[in-house]
UniProtKB/TrEMBL annotation:
InterPro entries membership: CheY-like_superfamily, NreC/VraR/RcsB-like_REC, Sig_transdc_resp-reg_receiver, WalR-like
UniProt-recorded name of the protein: DNA-binding response regulator
DNA-binding is among the record's keywords: yes
Species of origin: Lysobacter soli
One GO molecular-function entry: DNA binding
GO biological process, one term: phosphorelay signal transduction system
UniProt xrefs under PROSITE patterns: RESPONSE_REGULATORY (PS50110)
Pfam families: Response_reg
Keywords: DNA-binding
Length: 127
């Protein structure tokens, strides 16, 4: 199982703290940074080169959809982007995927949805 370098992006520090607390329990998870909006996420991706970006859809200054588009336009290797939102419906899921996200999870079931997804990524063979 490989280690995943993870960047968490959310405008709520409490949400970031809770996500970090849960991810620290996983031997394959290494939270390498955090960001409070999409602009910071782009900068952090350029600097840290995470394997995975866990990003909120709605944030001030720049939301997750626009940030996902810009992150996916960066140089390789590109991170696996997971967009999270309280709005869990087909329309929001489709917007996230069209913006370049690799997955969408509901914030209402965040840990239950994101941990199995990340664990699957950690067990995949690297290219």
């Amino acid at each position: 199982m490989r280690e995943l370098r993870i960047l968490i992006v959310d405008d709520h520090p409490g949400f970031i703290s809770a996500a970090i607390r849960h991810l620290r329990k996983q031997p394959w998870a290494n939270v390498v940074g955090t960001a409070g909006n999409g602009i910071e996420a782009i900068t952090q991706c350029e600097t840290l080169r995470p394997d995975v970006v866990l990003m909120d859809m709605a944030m001030p200054e720049m939301g997750g959809l626009q940030a996902a588009r810009l992150i996916k336009a960066q140089d390789e290797p590109l991170p696996f982007i997971v967009i999270a939102s309280h709005f869990d419906d087909t329309e929001h899921r489709e917007h996230a995927l069209r913006a370049g996200a690799d997955a969408f999870v509901s914030k209402l079931a965040y840990i239950q949805d994101v941990l199995p997804l990340l664990e699957r990524l950690a067990t995949e063979e690297t290219p």
